[in-house]
Amino acid sequence: MVTGGMRHAGIAAVAAFTMAALAACGGGNGDDAGGSGDAGGDGDLTTIGFVAVGPEGAWRNANEQNVQDTFTKEAGFDLKYAPAANLDQKSQIDAFTAFVDEGVDLILLSATEATGWEDSLQRAQEAEIPVILVDRGIEPDDTSLYVTRLAPNNVAVAANIANWLVDNHPEGGEYITIEGPAGVGVVDERNQGFDEVISKHPEWVKVGAQTANWAVDEGKSVTETFLKSNPDLKFVFAQNDEMGLGASEAVLEAGKTVGPDGVLIATIDGTKNAMTALSEGRLSFVAEYNPLFGDQLLDAVKKALAGEDQPSSIEVTSTTFDSPEAAKAALPDRKY
Ligand code: AHR
Q: Looking at the record's lineage, which domain of life comes first (predicted)?
């Protein structure tokens, strides 16, 4: 069984062979990766199996398109994109297993569910296929089972929202959290970051939390329900933009305003739709969760194939937007 420290030795052997194949194929200027192969054919390419989430909203589309735009044939890769069927984990595990059996050079994994990956990751390790986690973490977080995870820091992103709230709205009041789907790792991380800050501020009282599955319509219906049961609601923490945009519709349709005199709404992602809503006063605060980290991922993939040591997590930088002016300034160059 290949474990932690030895992890790199096995992979290094494969990578040495890959890099030799790369050299033999006249590539290897560091820009393209090259596979195990027979000069001239697709065999030259480094094969990457991307066990992806698939259609799930603006953020996901941006992230997975960015990965596909990065690992191109021109860059020396044969990226095999395997989106989950209806977010179903079994379809992801089946795709993962197929990639291991096929003997791809490396696997990228964005898990729809945080738990249930031990067996698959161990099989990849036994096959000496490096695995890199994209955005989503696994639970339990056994870092000996994967090379590294690339993602913005969910705990810090959510803490930014709580800090903005308590710093700018000491008046306090009732609030709700609209969560992503149960079982998704980032949901717990975002709750952790937000709760660690808000728990020190008794002026803000949590009156409920419910999942809305990253969706606008469910974000709207969840908020409508809470506005009926809690007419004095003052703040909505929406764990992604789509759910926050739904909450905004509910607040406005209830004849209230979005803001300190009505209901404040903060979201995570930073997509164009949310930035537009913030610029028009239909949201109060947007914490970016940057999906465009293909370059960092390419660097991590090359290091993994070369058997180089890497930290078990690589943080993707993200920023925040706290006013219509800030959103207006950012919108012209917004790529997602
Ligand atoms: O895992 C990241 C989350 O997944 C995004 O915040 C959300 O929009 C997406 O669906």
A: Bacteria
